[in-house]
Amino acid sequence: MKNLFYVRHTCRLCHSDKQELVVPMAGMPIGTPNFQVPDASVDDPVFRAAVPMALHLCRDCGHLQILHVGNPEVQYRNYVYTTSLSLGLRQHFEGYASDVVSRFGIAPGSLVVELGSNDGSLLGFFKERGMRVLGVDPAVDIARRATEAGIETIGDFFTDALGHRILKSHGAASVVIANNMIANVDNLDPLVIGVRDVLAPDGLFVFETQYGVDVTEKNLLDTVYHEHLSYFNIKPLTRFFARLGMEVIDVQHIWTKGGSIRVTVQRAGGAKKPSAEVARFIAEEDRLGVDQPAYYAPYVKRIAAIRDELVAMADAAHARGQSVAGYGVSVGTTTLLPQFGLESKIDFLVDDDPKKGNVMAGPGYDIPILPPAALYERKPAFVVVFAWRYVDPIRAKHAGYFADGGKFVVPLPGISMVDRAD
């Protein structure tokens, strides 16, 4: 496949070329279970090429980012992951909509535009509250189905040009929302300029994204992959928005993705006074020193220690003639296999979703995907739970495996063992 990825050499927030490698990581494929690649065989480079994925720190503004950028046409035009399938996310979205409407007094009839709107789940809750809604998402099939379900959705990438077209066709937006999508965008300037221009004078841009501090402090390694190009902290964000004529006025710490932030932005000089939370977040980031390369050394050591322990456990099991399994087939699995050196150590994977296929293919590996019943038939020495955030509902299903002496190994945020269903 041509144009699988490209390399940028400047910070996507401040455009400085002073980028320093701070977290070396094993390369991983651009292709993940999140999207389909039409007409691509299992041996296409999109699945087989180990594309570099190291994290770099901007020495001018402190932004943490991946510089090897996957082709967005490949990644997002045929996206298959839908937000409505994630455990607890619809309830989160309902609270999200209620919070935005009540905190900022959004009147019925106001226009709410969502970038990366996926299946329209979040916009549906704004629509229930009397808002006019419009989604924008480049996944053409998901956008079509959302429109058919009653959430008008434009099947395209959002840019300043599209923002201007929306302004002419729908009027100014009271709220623009982006839920876990701005970290996926390489060229952020046109997106934010489009948001700024489509907003009403008193309009707000509200977005949720993974918090960079949580990624490092909580060992959220499975959230690091090529779709997530940026790991945002508040201090660099405030400078970025100021450069484009906007102002960060509030930050909330939320539970999603293991640790995220909900950031509210207005046009510079807008009516709303910035909350004390903005300064508090920045002060904590300064205390931790997240804009300094030395801060990331312990994170690198923690990853290496987990990798060494998991590899040693797998080697010991194989030496005894036992197999090793993994639970969960997702983009997080695609990340953790190479970061923990498990590509040749996992004998098979299991997943509750029969649509995950028969094989997980990657650079140098083809791991069989089996139904969970294989745990009882093959009796692996232990199971690495790649879907570690869901270990409690998963363990509750497998009392029989534990009764036979089986163990779950939870790799993050640090290695722990589970040998019972409750």
TrEMBL record:
<dbReference type="InterPro" id="IPR038576">
    <property type="entry name" value="Methyltransf_Zn-bd_dom_put_sf"/>
</dbReference>
<dbReference type="Pfam" id="PF08421">
    <property type="entry name" value="Methyltransf_13"/>
</dbReference>
<keyword id="KW-0489">Methyltransferase</keyword>
<dbReference type="InterPro" id="IPR013630">
    <property type="entry name" value="Methyltransf_Zn-bd_dom_put"/>
</dbReference>
<dbReference type="InterPro" id="IPR029063">
    <property type="entry name" value="SAM-dependent_MTases_sf"/>
</dbReference>
<feature type="domain" description="C-methyltransferase">
    <location>
        <begin position="256"/>
        <end position="413"/>
    </location>
</feature>
<dbReference type="GO" id="GO:0008168">
    <property type="term" value="F:methyltransferase activity"/>
</dbReference>
<dbReference type="Pfam" id="PF13489">
    <property type="entry name" value="Methyltransf_23"/>
</dbReference>
<dbReference type="GO" id="GO:0032259">
    <property type="term" value="P:methylation"/>
</dbReference>
<dbReference type="Pfam" id="PF08484">
    <property type="entry name" value="Methyltransf_14"/>
</dbReference>
<feature type="domain" description="Methyltransferase putative zinc binding">
    <location>
        <begin position="11"/>
        <end position="76"/>
    </location>
</feature>
<keyword id="KW-0808">Transferase</keyword>
<dbReference type="InterPro" id="IPR013691">
    <property type="entry name" value="MeTrfase_14"/>
</dbReference>
<protein>
    <submittedName>
        <fullName>D-mycarose 3-C-methyltransferase</fullName>
    </submittedName>
</protein>
